[in-house]
């Protein structure tokens, strides 16, 4: 059984159907097609305001390109020390921004606090042109630790950035899971709380390759089209990303898929927590959880065919003993229960 | 009727079928899946040698990433002045390579000659570290002018590069059309003629988004995986690019689609050439042609709903009066004939 | 006898004296000292207007940094195909700008014409975001071919750039020689004619290492201080560059040194032109000249200890047979005459 | 009285004399002169081994360029969170390396420990190509906190880097002060302890603008000349940097100047430590010290004309209450004693 990653799960059938439908007839390239226009408008509706929307195929591209128009090349971007932009993009943000500095900040449960941001900034007094001036804050929603920021937490953290003149980027590779878990609206979790640019992910939650970079203020997006093009991220057959989002946003499919994945993670988390010797490392807010097993248990599970990755990070509370388990829109209750059964046996 | 671009055509049904098939079950991400491995092996077969193969979604990414491991950031890449890398990627190669210099060279019919390359290099004597040392040559096959290099032409041009210590990159966004038109084997048109790295395009010829960067010498590819990842071009659900190539390479589909597009362009070219006042600007070797119409004709055709773009380039032989017409795997004989009929009427 | 380069000549005594004087007492670093402020003001006086002035130590830094704030990283900078930015800075402008494209343009005598600029731009129609948008024009005054633009020529060329929305950069590594030769004022040759940013060189004309980047509109310079700092070009002991300029601008020393170098080049040029079989390749406007000798002559001169470099460039009118001879503020009439005598003997 | 920075101090007379001497006659540019060759050889002697030596004018350039050939653009460079490369170069290392990631690490007294390095690396498990692979460690000797690494400390820290496959860069802007204070040989403090590349500073210790990048293994330096040139850091009149080092290394001038500055800092440190309410924040190993004063004292001293900067950093042990005082080769005993006297009065 694989709890390796939500990107192992393939695509939701609705997404594939939409791709097939979108193939009908000729359509202008590079986003000039009507479907792309339609879906851009859908985003405006979901976020309850006019916004500039750009599609790309990967989360790394979305984050890097978003940051590339949010910071000068000599700027500094604050982020969590376990964030994807810091840990998992092979120095992509530095590449896309032309060499901006990423400043990793520690924080419990994968989250940044307003205090941590203020304290950090205090250590970087304004000394132009010596220090790289802090230009942006990058938040992750839901976080790499399977947690999420509440609306209040988001507002408070954004306020700390805003008071220092930083704009706020949100890596929303698992934004759908965070929204589904929170009950808050997409608008409340983003621009109403102070987020300037959101990378809205579809890939991890049932799309093939579909990410949207959403600028809540169009003026910030001025250079984006050029930056996307030169980075090779402007699709000629753009309608096939648009089609994915068309289905994804239709009738709340995105939240339905995310809710299911979240529920499976909850079930798995509760089940594991009840097993002697198994510990859950962080609150299970979304569709991933992090656990420590008694010695030898993880190896035995893997020998039995279960797939999940060790979880080792800079701020590691388990000192290298953690494991990450991710549920997806495709994970079933039966799979979860079977796995729990196996863990129970091995732990006995 | 649209002759705007082969990327307006959408996807071939076999490609979509393959995507749907590939969705079955969980699969490791980032190219660790069996389908990716299988398709990489298929490329080795088609090119008759071991090679390193990497998938990306766009031609601009393929070219930029390929060049990024073929030149140091202070190097110089020779290319045709009308090539895609020079004209249509928004300074992408400069971005991917960390600032290498592109040197545009003129040449008839979109092609570089060995003489032009030698003459150019003569004007850049070796003066380290003052001049950016010439590091690579970029060829386009088929060219932006709808022509192609024969095997002999390729060999001769590569030899001029090789004798100066340059490695050879081939932008093969329309490689399929060139192969289909030439009757030569993929191997003969590439590594046997001196090409080091090929960007093998699928997108313009019936795929959704599928390009393969092929290193005929694995050693050259050493850094590629890191460069692709940091540029946001490593797909998590890689199997969906692999699936496209799986179908594309199966039973020669790629050549079948390309041959059809080529034939439609031939039909269109012959038909137009026979019309009074219409001139064909370059030999019609592949699936695109370039024409000048009598005054007012192009506007009337566009007013009537036909879609094609003006063709204006640095080495423009028509001084701004040319138009580009592209056929795709989806173009039908009827469409061609209908359009020809319309042109005849308008030209009368 | 060395006619190798004006940078072989060392420093003028006045420059060294000023450095020694500047060493008196403590002074704030990084340009916060009074001498730097004073010299910045001197530039405003010489150019008859308020301007932002920044010092760096090399011409390559001046050009690259100036361009880095004049073009977005995806922009295109037009320049002469034989210009220093294109030929002699090891892809520095591409590095400093974060990957902007340099577009080399041919032109007689090292000069760009308005026609050539207009014709070039015509081949690059506005197609955002595909082509890199033309953002700046770089002129060289005096040119790499030892010629100079008159005030009228400068105005006409700048107008061609301006009408296309390009800003104008002037590489003035030998600006002093051009001013001295022209009789026009610094203002007339720059901002009054349409130049936006001037790199004003001191190094080749008697300074040790002193170049000033002058923005005639302060607003354009906004990011410059950060770009200079991150590129390692902000001197901590800035007063020692300021001191060089202080002496250089005092009592017209810069024009006196340049006039002398120009006069020596004139003397050399006239002398050589009178020798049978020696040809002067371009007009000798400033302090360098380019000649072809009868076969074997250059080698014999070099064997006899004379030093000068072959002149091989992309637009080479002598097909590899040219040589460059440069005079400096230190070149004497006796040296010129002795050399002429030797050439006469060898040519006999 | 200024304790603002060692770069306020100007140049030592011997350095100026050498510059004047070096001006005699013509000399090849770009480091082809005999003086440059001679001084390169001097460095080999001082470091007791063959090495590749390159001169630049600023410490930021030295560090950035050194790192640019020590890490791929997608690599990660470990450094102290208070180091110059992290705090004071405006994201220069990210620029020079083409986007490598700097990873700041905390450590007492401005120093990194082997434990901290090992613990940090443990949090970045090898997951190519996702995480930016750790490629280099950057140490600062003497540190930004006025401390220094002993030979043993250096060896132990380098070993932790070496065992993880990292190469070691040493920012030696105040290397002279560290050597003078340690009594160890330059070789013992660098390559014998495991340092691969040293940026040897002259500017802060009596030169005008002179830094040497020293590769203890020539093979590592392969691309350096190109990288330096394209970054505008290759001086045409290189002899004037060489001349500074010529004098600086002659008869141990570099150590004499550094010893004096160190001694003045010691005197100042002891004096201040004896004053009621004044605390010294770190051990005073070299020529700078960091102090906290009783409330109001710093302001009164500044009002009285004394100059020194507040000291605020990420790992700030004084929570924003610290001040930095730097002595230079020019600081006199009288100046120190006068200042101490004033502090005593104000503190009374």
UniProtKB/TrEMBL annotation, chains A, B, C, D:
Coiled coil: none annotated. The keyword Heme does not apply. Its EC number is 4.1.2.48. It catalyses: L-threonine = acetaldehyde + glycine; L-allo-threonine = acetaldehyde + glycine. CDD domains: TA_like. Keywords: Lyase, Pyridoxal phosphate. It comes from the Bacteria. The keyword Lipid metabolism does not apply. Residues 3-291 form the Aromatic amino acid beta-eliminating lyase/threonine aldolase domain. Its cofactor is pyridoxal 5'-phosphate. InterPro entries: ArAA_b-elim_lyase/Thr_aldolase, Low_specificity_L-TA_bact, PyrdxlP-dep_Trfase, PyrdxlP-dep_Trfase_major, PyrdxlP-dep_Trfase_small. It holds the Pfam family Beta_elim_lyase. Belongs to the threonine aldolase family. Homotetramer. Catalyzes the cleavage of L-allo-threonine and L-threonine to glycine and acetaldehyde. This is L-threonine aldolase. It comes from Hyphococcus aureus.
